[in-house]
Amino acid sequence: MRALVCRELSADLSGVRLERAWPDPPPPGPGKVRVRLAYAALNFPDLLMTRGLYQMKPELPFVPGGEAAGHVQDVGEGVEGVAPGDPVIASLATGGLAERALLPAAALRPVPDGLTLAEAAGFTTMYMTAFVALDRRGRLAAGETLLVHGAAGGVGLAAVDLGLVIGARVIATASTPDKRAFLAERGAHHVIAPEPGFREEVKALTGGRGADVIYDPVGGAVFAESMRCIAWDGRLLVVGFASGTIPQLTANIPLIKGFSVVGVRAGEHGRRHPEDGRACRAAIDGLAAEGRLRPHVGAVLPLGDAIEGLRRLDRREAVGKIVIDCAA
Questions:
Q1: Confidence tier at 71 by pLDDT (50, 70, 90)
Q2: What are phi and psi of 161, to 5 degrees?
Q3: What secondary structure does DSSP assign to 124-173, as a single string?
Q4: Do 130 and 232 belong together in one domain?
């Protein structure tokens, strides 16, 4: 079968290529399910893994891709609740950028009503990250002000969406006029550029108080300036470092300003608290089925162009999710 394979770690994706004779997964054994993948979504960790810079370092060679959607092909002994032909969301560590995958039955769940397979492929990571961040870690409440950085990307856009569902006043930042226009149409109350000095805009928009919750998947200088526009008792959520720079925290600033810096790892939250992880997934699935959450698929590329998709992700060109058509 075809698959995107990383054979060597590299900074420029030179060790990654499409292969047409990658081993097909075997028939499923007990508790396993073989899935014909329809779409896979790209995430920043997929790119980092090809460079050896992610906390999980799969053994070479490996197939990137941490989330996908498709149809059940066949099931192993003892598997209940899914049958051949069922549309499912697949949560993987790796292996999503291929035509088929063999997975534990527990790694699959039904596609929420109302979502296409392309939308379902990119649904879980973005909304689980936002839900764990804003609900479990950030305790965002209706009426509070939420500042979302990198708001046009997958996890940023999910935070905008969920903040609106919660009833927060959402300020979104994005790097280009087109992205800012998109966010305004999406419903963000205020959209600003993340240029040096944005803290003054945030203060002006909040009457000098600052944002109650700041969601930061960018890091670097954005994090440093965010500390200057957060409200007393605010929560500064560390989601990632898409800028490539891990910021340094001067401890006297949260002491003086009375805010908390809170790390967010949605996957680890689910592993350490499996019952609550299931509750979080059920919550976002329910909101999707009600039509209150719906991922934005900004681009669909064929499997043969998956490397280009990763490059777009690296260049910060994605609006919403970049999704790969595994059959094309």
A1: very high
A2: -60, -50
A3: HHHHHHHHIIIIIIS---TT-EEEESSTTBHHHHHHHHHHHHHT-EEEEE
A4: yes
Ramachandran sector of residue 314 (left: φ over 0; alpha: ψ -120 to 50; beta: rest) = alpha
27 and 108 part of one domain: yes
**Is 243 a residue whose pLDDT tops 90?**
no
Residues 59 and 154 grouped into a single domain: no
- Which CATH number fits the domain that encloses residue 225? 3.40.50.720
What's the pLDDT at 242? 85
Structure tokens at 79: 């598997």
Identity at 11, one-letter amino acid code:
A
On average, the pLDDT of the chain sits at 96
Looking at this protein, which amino acid is placed at residue 257?
K
Number of domains comprising the chain:
2
pLDDT of 244 > 90? The answer is: no
Q: Is the pTM of this model over 0.90?
A: yes
Domain range holding 65?
3-123+295-325
